[in-house]
What we know:
Number of domains: 1
Helix content: 25-40%
Largest sheet: 5 strands, mixed
Distance between the termini: 5 Å
Order of helices and strands: EHHEHEHHEHE
Number of strands: 5
Strand content: 5-15%
Strand order of the largest sheet: 3-2-4-1-5
Shape: globular
Number of helices: 6
CATH superfamily: Phosphoglycerate mutase-like
CATH topology: Rossmann fold
Amino acid sequence: MKxxxxxxxxxxxxxxGKIQGQTDIELNETGIxxxxxxxxxxxxxxxxxxISSPLKRARKTAEIIAxxxxxxxxxxxxxxxxxxxxxxxxxxKEFNFDEIWNYKLNKQYEDAESTGELFARVQxxxxxxxxxxxxxxxxxxxxxxxxxxxxxxxxxxPEGMEVLRGFGLDxxxxxxxxx
Length: 179
């Protein structure tokens, strides 16, 4: 199968540097334009199915990209953004952001998804997707946090990298993988 992976368009919280997690934030005008640009970039790409996170920013991005195509959009909680719980709405300066993304440390939180839990959830999604969509081209519209374990699984973690901050996709960046 061919996997096209993208992150939702920009939100106001992206600009403000706030952690969104599963807080359901809308795209802003820039995010809508980014999704439209991604639609144009993918115009000649055959896409059989689009799988989107249930959060508004990803769903709207998927809907914009799907405009003019006869392709189903499937909503899947397996690619919903990482649950940052107690850290949602805070900026990276208000807590130890590197610690939460240190996969070797895999710190457990009372009210947030650990890196290990996120990786397990996303790897389960990838396995299910490989089984269900063999020989198809699938566009996955997700989040920066979810793109980290997808990239780490499919590309490997760069040597010496323990803190995976910065390993996620930028808004509407597209990566392609053969599975």
